[in-house]
Design a protein that fits this description.
Radius of gyration: 18 Å
CATH class: Mainly Alpha
CATH topology: Arc Repressor Mutant, subunit A
Oligomer: single chain
Order of helices and strands: HHHEEHH
Number of strands: 2
Strand content: 5-15%
Structural class: mainly alpha
Number of domains: 1
CATH superfamily: Winged helix-like DNA-binding domain superfamily/Winged helix DNA-binding domain
Shape: globular
Amino acid sequence: MSIPNLDPDLLRAFVVVAERLSFTRAAEQLNRTQAAVSLQVKRLEERIETILFRRSTARVELTAAGEGFLIDARRILALNEQAIARVSGQQVGGQVRIGVMEDYGTKI
């Protein structure tokens, strides 16, 4: 038995659908058609031989396997970004904002 290769594009499509709980909204975010995103998720499910979503005309929800796989998919994508940034000399950057209730954020 060979271990399947996990294509980052398929993982990204899966993560966005899981976060949006909608193939249509995921397609908008990924600048793809809904059919293309649906096909990517189907290819991923076939590759790992696991159903990741329960689909109906009204809803999309993660299966138990999908919930667990989401954690790993996010981690794989983050490591992929870090590796590319490291070899290309780019630093991961940005702003971090912290929300604090006023009771904790004032001086006495």
